[in-house]
C-alpha cells in the first residue's frame, strides 16, 4: 500500500499509510489534540475528521476552538435540521442548507403552509434526540440516478443533485437517515446539543426574485452552553436595538408595499430627527467653507456614460427613461457628475481653490428586493455629499481638514466605535478599475501619507476602492453586528480628466484640478438607522423628536398653565407637547418613558402656585422640583452641548 506525504504547519513532512484520516494524524501528534479535533484542512479544503486523505498534501488540524470547527458543527446542525424537517413533514421540499458566520439555515417549501415559528420547538426536540443518540455520521456516495430517485418529488433537491459534477453524489448517512451532504461534518451527532432554532423568514430560491419564495429556517449552535447563552443575549440586544423595531415603536418611518419596497415614508417623529441632522450638517459644512447647492435628481444618460458610472455601475442604476425625442434621462445614482457641472459652469482660478461644494443630494439605486432593509438599504436615499476641487499640492492638507471635520461630527453625535480602512484597487481587476497605474500609485501613496501624518491607525484593503480612485472608509458596526461604511473620503484624478476640468494657475496657464469626494455621515436614511440603533431609540435631547412632554394633573385646573409653559418652550425652539388625554397620571408618565422622551414635566397646584415644574428625566424613577426658568436654562444647555456630559 502506497504512502501519502503529509506536511504540517511547522514545515515538517511525514509519511502516512494510504487511507489515513485526520483523526489518525491528530492521534499521531497527541491524544489531547485528538480529543479536541473535529475536522482538518487538507490542501486548504475543509474535510471530515474521518475522511481518508487522498494524495500528498498539507494539513491543519481543526479543533472545537477554531472558527472552522464551529463551521463544521453548524454544517452538522443543518444536516440534523434537514432530518427533523423530513421526519415531522415527510412531504416537505428542501433547498439549500448552509453554515455561516452567524449560524446555519435550511430552505424549505410545503404545499399547505410554510413552517411557522410556532413549530420550531417541536423540530428542536427531534434534533435533541438525534444529538443524544450520538449517531455516527458516514459520508457515502450515491449514483446520480439513485440520488435523483431519492429526491424525485422535490424540485429543489433535484436541482441540487443535478448541480453536482460527475456521476456520484455525496450523501450523509446518519443513523437510519440519508441527507444531501453540505460541507465537512462531525464524526457523530453528539456535539449538536447547545443549539437554538431562531426564526423563519422568506428567501428566494437561489437568491433570485424571479424564483419561488421559500421558507428559510435559521438556527445557531455552539460547542459550549455558555457560548450559546452569550450569543442569544447578544441577539436579544440586537433585536432591541433594531431600527426597524424601534422605528415602529416610536412611529419614525414605514414602508408601504402599495408604493414600493425600499421607499420609506418619514413620519413626523422621524422627519424631525432627519431635519435636525440636515440642519446640523449644513450649518457645520457652511462654517467650514462649503457652498451648498441643489442639483436635479434626473440627468441625461450621456452624463453617466462620460463619468464612467454607466460602464462600471449600470447594474445598480434604474433603467433609462426614453423621452421620445432621442433624449434618455436617468435617475442619478451619484451626485458627483452634477457637482462637476457646477464647477464647469464658470472659468475657475487657482485663487478659488480649494472649491468646496456640498449638497443633501437625492439618489436612486436599483436594489434587489431581498437586499432591502428598513432605512439601511433603500432604493431612494439622500446623501450628505461633498466634493472639493483642489490643486495637486493642496490634496493632503484638504484631506486632513475633511478628516478633522468628520471626527468633530462624530464627537457631536457621540460616535466612538469606528475604525479607518484605506481602500485600494485590485491591480489585477482591470475591468472594474480605471486603468492608470501611475494615477493609482500616486493617489494611494498620498492617502497613506496623510493618515500617517495624522498618526491614525488604519487597515489596508485591496479591492475596496471606488472605480475611479482610492478612498478612506470609516467602518462601524450595526446593532445586528454587520460592518458598514459610515463615511468616506475618495481621491479622484480620473473624473477631472474625463470632464476636462481646468483652473487658471498663477502662471496664467490651464491646470488640471484633483477632485475629492466625501460623505461625512452617509445617507440620511442609513445614518438615522445607525443612530436609532446606537441610542436604542433614546435620542439625546438635541435630536429627540419630542424633547419635552407636559402632563397637567387636571386639564380643567392646570391645563392653561401647561399651555403657557409649552408656549415659552416653543418660543425657545424646544419641541414640546401637552398630554391632555385625561388618562391616569401613572399611565401618562409610563407612556412618556416608553416613547423615550427626554423630559417629562408634571404640573399641578403646587407647580402653578410657584411657577415651577416637577421634572422627570428619561430612565430615572424620581422627579425633581425646580423653577420653570431654571428648567429652561437646563434644557437649553443640554441641547447646546449636544447632550454630552461636561
In CATH, what is the class of the largest domain?
A: Alpha Beta
Catalogue the unreliable spans: none
Strands, total number: 32
The value of Rg in angstroms is 31 Å
CATH topology of the largest domain: BirA Bifunctional Protein, domain 2
Helical stretch tally: 20
Mean pLDDT: 90
InterPro entries: aa-tRNA-synt_IIb, aa-tRNA-synth_II, aa-tRNA-synth_II/BPL/LPL, Anticodon-bd, Anticodon-bd_dom_sf, Beta-grasp_dom_sf, TGS, TGS-like
EC number: 6.1.1.3
GO cellular component, one term: cytoplasm
Cofactor: Zn(2+)
Layout: helices, strands, pairs:
Elements: E1 3-7, E2 13-17, H1 22-29, H2 31-36, E3 37-42, E4 45-48, E5 57-63, H3 67-88, E6 93-100, E7 103-109, H4 120-132, E8 137-143, H5 144-150, H6 155-162, E9 168-174, E10 177-180, E11 194-204, E12 213-222, H7 225-241, H8 243-249, E13 253-254, E14 265-266, H9 268-287, E15 291-292, E16 298-300, H10 301-307, H11 309-313, E17 321-322, E18 328-331, H12 336-344, E19 355-364, E20 380-390, H13 395-412, E21 419-424, H14 437-453, E22 459-462, E23 471-477, E24 483-492, H15 494-498, E25 503-504, E26 510-511, E27 514-523, H16 524-535, E28 548-552, H17 555-571, E29 576-578, H18 585-594, E30 599-603, H19 605-610, E31 612-617, E32 624-627, H20 628-640
Parallel strand pairs: 1-5, 15-19, 21-22, 28-29, 28-30
Antiparallel strand pairs: 1-2, 3-4, 3-5, 6-7, 7-12, 8-9, 9-10, 11-12, 13-14, 16-18, 17-18, 19-20, 20-27, 21-23, 23-24, 24-27, 25-26, 30-31, 31-32
Helix pairs in contact: 3-4, 8-16, 13-14
Amino acid at each position: 500500500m502506497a504512502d501519502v506525504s503529509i506536511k504540517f504547519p511547522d514545515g515538517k513532512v511525514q509519511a502516512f499509510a494510504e487511507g489515513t484520516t485526520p483523526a489518525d494524524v491528530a492521534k499521531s501528534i497527541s491524544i489531547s489534540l485528538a480529543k479536541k479535533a473535529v475536522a482538518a484542512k487538507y490542501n486548504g479544503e475543509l474535510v471530515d475528521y474521518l475522511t481518508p486523505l487522498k494524495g500528498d498534501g498539507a494539513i491543519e488540524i481543526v479543533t472545537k476552538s477554531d472558527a472552522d470547527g464551529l463551521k463544521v458543527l453548524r454544517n452538522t446542525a443543518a444536516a440534523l435540521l434537514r432530518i427533523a424537517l423530513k421526519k415531522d413533514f415527510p412531504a416537505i421540499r428542501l433547498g439549500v442548507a448552509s453554515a455561516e458566520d452567524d449560524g446555519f439555515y435550511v430552505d424549505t417549501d410545503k404545499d399547505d403552509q410554510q413552517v411557522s415559528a410556532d413549530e420550531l420547538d417541536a423540530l428542536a426536540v427531534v434534533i435533541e434526540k438525534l444529538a443524544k443518540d450520538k449517531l455516527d455520521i458516514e459520508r457515502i456516495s450515491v449514483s446520480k440516478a439513485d440520488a435523483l430517485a431519492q429526491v424525485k418529488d422535490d424540485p429543489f433537491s433535484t436541482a441540487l443533485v443535478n448541480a453536482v459534477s460527475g456521476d456520484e453524489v455525496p450523501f450523509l448517512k446518519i443513523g437510519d437517515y440519508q441527507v444531501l451532504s453540505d460541507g465537512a461534518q462531525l464524526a457523530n451527532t453528539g456535539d449538536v446539543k447547545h443549539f437554538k432554532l431562531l426564526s423563519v423568514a422568506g428567501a428566494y430560491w437561489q437568491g433570485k426574485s424571479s424564483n419561488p419564495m421559500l421558507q428559510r429556517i435559521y438556527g445557531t449552535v455552539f460547542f459550549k452552553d455558555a457560548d450559546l447563552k452569550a450569543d442569544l443575549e447578544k441577539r436579544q440586544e440586537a433585536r432591541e436595538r433594531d431600527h426597524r423595531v424601534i422605528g415602529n415603536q416610536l412611529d419614525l418611518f414605514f414602508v408601504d408595499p402599495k408604493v414600493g419596497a425600499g421607499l420609506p415614508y418619514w413620519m413626523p417623529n422621524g422627519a424631525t430627527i432627519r431635519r435636525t441632522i440636515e440642519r446640523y450638517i449644513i450649518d457645520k459644512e457652511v462654517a467650514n467653507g462649503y457652498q451648498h447647492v441643489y442639483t436635479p435628481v434626473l440627468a441625461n444618460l450621456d452624463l453617466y456614460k462620460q463619468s464612467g458610472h454607466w460602464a462600471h455601475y449600470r447594474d445598480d442604476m434604474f433603467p433609462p427613461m426614453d423621452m421620445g425625442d432621442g433624449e434618455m434621462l436617468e435617475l442619478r445614482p451619484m451626485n458627483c457628475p452634477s457637482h462637476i457641472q457646477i464647477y464647469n459652469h464658470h472659468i475657475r482660478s487657482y485663487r478659488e481653490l480649494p472649491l468646496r461644494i456640498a449638497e443633501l443630494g437625492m439618489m436612486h439605486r436599483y436594489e434587489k428586493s431581498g437586499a432591502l432593509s428598513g432605512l439601511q438599504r433603500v432604493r431612494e436615499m439622500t446623501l450628505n455629499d461633498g466634493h472639493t476641487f483642489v490643486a495637486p499640492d493642496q490634496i493632503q492638507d484638504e484631506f486632513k481638514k475633511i478628516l478633522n471635520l468628520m471626527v468633530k461630527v462624530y464627537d457631536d453625535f457621540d460616535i466612538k466605535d469606528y475604525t479607518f480602512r484605506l481602500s485600494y484597487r485590485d491591480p489585477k481587476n482591470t475591468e472594474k478599475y480605471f486603468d492608470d497605474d501611475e494615477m493609482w500609485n500616486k493617489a494611494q501613496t498620498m492617502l497613506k501619507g496623510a493618515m500617517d501624518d495624522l498618526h491614525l491607525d488604519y487597515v489596508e484593503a485591496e479591492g475596496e476602492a471606488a472605480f475611479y480612485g482610492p478612498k478612506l472608509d470609516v467602518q462601524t458596526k450595526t446593532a445586528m453586528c454587520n460592518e458598514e461604511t459610515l463615511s468616506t473620503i475618495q481621491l479622484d484624478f480620473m473624473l477631472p480628466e474625463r470632464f476636462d476640468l481646468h483652473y487658471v494657475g498663477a502662471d496664467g496657464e490651464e491646470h488640471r484640478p484633483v477632485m475629492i469626494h466625501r460623505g461625512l455621515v452617509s445617507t440620511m436614511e442609513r445614518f438615522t438607522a445607525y443612530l436609532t440603533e446606537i441610542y436604542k431609540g433614546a435620542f439625546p435631547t438635541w435630536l429627540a423628536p419630542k424633547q419635552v412632554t407636559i402632563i397637567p394633573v387636571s386639564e380643567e385646573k392646570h391645563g392653561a398653565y401647561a399651555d403657557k409653559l409649552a408656549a415659552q418652550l416653543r418660543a425657545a425652539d424646544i419641541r414640546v407637547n401637552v398630554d391632555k388625554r385625561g388618562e391616569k397620571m401613572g399611565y401618562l408618565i409610563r407612556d412618556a418613558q416608553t416613547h423615550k422622551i427626554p423630559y417629562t414635566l408634571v404640573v399641578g397646584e403646587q407647580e402653578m402656585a410657584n411657577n415651577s415644574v416637577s421634572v422627570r428625566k428619561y430612565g430615572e424613577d424620581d422627579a425633581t422640583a425646580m423653577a420653570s426658568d431654571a428648567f429652561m436654562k437646563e434644557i437649553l444647555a443640554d441641547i447646546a452641548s449636544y447632550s454630552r456630559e461636561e
